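Minutes, methods subgroup
Present: GH (chair), OT, SY

1. OT presented the first of two proteins processed in the latest run. Sequence and structure tokens recorded below as shown on screen.
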Amino acid sequence: MTTLTVETISLHYGAAQALRQVSLKAASEQITCLLGRNGVGKTSLLRAITGQHPISSGDIRLNERSLGKSPAYSRAGNGIAYVPQGREIFPQLTVRENLETGFARLDQHERRVEKEIFDLFPILKDMLSRRGGDLSGGQQQQLAIARAMVTRPKILVLDEPTEGIQPSIIKDIGRAILYLKEQKKMTILLVEQYLDFCRDLADAIYIMDRGEIMHTGPAADLDRDDVRRHLTV
């Protein structure tokens, strides 16, 4: 069981403050969805959690262990896997080689791509020798999630996995996320703007605006007008 706790963190880019006293909890074996308009600090929060940008104050804990100022590779070693916005697969590497980059944090005897990855994303099995850059956007997103799964994470952090993806693949991604929660007992933190996707998947939602958390509650709150107003431009 793994819980991620963000406690009153602030984050700056030089003199500009991106996060202001943000607190969030991604509970064990649940899907927590973070919502908000563009530019409100969602990706900055994920960069803080994954160790890609230092926080100015506050704390981030994995269960009761503080991550402190540990670097990104250390957090990956502790079981945090990150699927960034835009996927960031390696376009010149094959699908197989992209998946095998996930071996870096694993012991030698663990370095294999599990069959369940191809059960969830069967198209990847048919494209193992194709270059990542030749895949469609939806296929690249499946590859990015599969690469994260190769690392055998305890916590999966996804930044807008439905962005620019066709509806049929969005459904496949949704089924995969539910599988990871229900069958692999994984803790999942999901940043999204697609409200129906969050409502269907999430156990809890957080809404961010101007670097602060404005609302916390169950996914059913997305049906409330006073909650939705935080998401309208």
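2. SY then presented the second protein from the same run.
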Amino acid sequence: MEYLQDRLDEITASTRSLVQPERLAVSERAVADLYASGIETRILPVGAQAPGFALPDASGRLVRSTDLLALGPLVLDFFRGRWCPYCVTELETWQGLYSAVRKRGGLLVGISPQLPRQNEFLAIQHELSFPILSDAGCAVAGEFGLAYEVPPAGREYYRSILVNIPLINGDESWRLPLPATYVLSKDGVVLFAAAHADFRVRPEPAEVLEALA
């Protein structure tokens, strides 16, 4: 069996062989600082009532969490953007498992701070059949305890690798979410919660699917 984390580790190994050490050092320090902030300890935990949301999908249509939960339990995948290879790999993995989510009666949505047009590019390019929602300014991510502001050194790092986050997200806030996966029951209670300050780490889908069983 191929695990998601194995695929992500391959990306990390490739990056370390291609990216200049001084640039890697900036990224490593950003991860360490974010972890040291304690943000992982402040995410919405299992057993909490999840906040409701109404967010536009890639076509601009408003999608409400109440409507989704009326149909079944919900898997939420918060991701940084289509510029993040780790996020794309995770979303592609979930696309391959979407039928397994549906067989358990669940629904799946991705949520990012990108503009709807950017999410549309992502969905088309990677053939994603589940909704990708646009969370402007990480407003909903903030309610889940996931949002943070990229510090100046991190902004310079992203500029150096030609990732224009203000352009992609449509605002100058430089807010991003921790990559996170949640499972909500039909009544909106958190059944599973996982988020990591290290963007290179994601939960295994098998663990998430267990929460839907």
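Chair's summary of item 2: The radius of gyration is 16 Å.
Next meeting: continue with the remaining queue.
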